[in-house]
Amino acid sequence: MKPVYNFRGKPKMMNPKNPPSPEGRSLDIEEVRLVSDLRIMHSKVQDLYTVVHHLKQRFSEEEIERYADQEMLTDEIKQVDEIYLWFVKLKERQRQKRA
Questions:
Q1: Pairwise CA distance, residues 84 & 86, whole Å
Q2: Are 64 and 55 a contacting pair, CB within 8 Å?
Q3: Residue 3 above 60 pLDDT?
Q4: Per-domain residue ranges for the chain?
Q5: Percentage of the chain surpassing pLDDT 70?
Q6: CB within 8 A of 39, min separation 6: which ones?
Q7: For residues 43-72, b (16+ Cβ closer than 10 Å) or e, as one string?
Q8: Residue 73: count of CB within 10 angstroms of its CB
Q9: How many Cβ atoms are within 10 Å of 83's Cβ, its own excluded?
Q10: Residue 1 contacts residue 7 (beta carbons within 8 Å)
């Protein structure tokens, strides 16, 4: 077995012939698609976080507001709000399962 790296760069040992699944069986195509989409989502969230972090370090909020396309910025803020609320809902479900 060789190490498989996740998006956070932490290696873990995984046998590619026996992928893990919740029920100890092989994943069906929809489950594979879900796992793939989740990995893409994790990567994109990290990308967005990194870009925003660098913008905040390099520029003031006044500069960002002055040069941003205001209509687009408003739409993007709405989209991020929707994503945030979805993450909060998932987090609450996790808490309820642990309780």
A1: 5
A2: yes
A3: no
A4: 67-99
A5: 77
A6: 7
A7: eeeeeeeeeeeeeeeeeeeeeeeeeeeeee
A8: 13
A9: 13
A10: no
The two tokens of residue 29 are: 């195509």
The beta strands (E) that lie in 6-80 are given as 11-14
d(CA 78, CA 72): 10
Alpha carbons 14 and 46: distance in angstroms, whole number: 23
What element of type H or E holds 35? helix 29-58
State the Cα–Cα distance between residues 88 and 85, nearest whole angstrom: 5
pTM of the model: 0.68
Helix (H) or strand (E) run with residue 61 in it:
helix 61-67
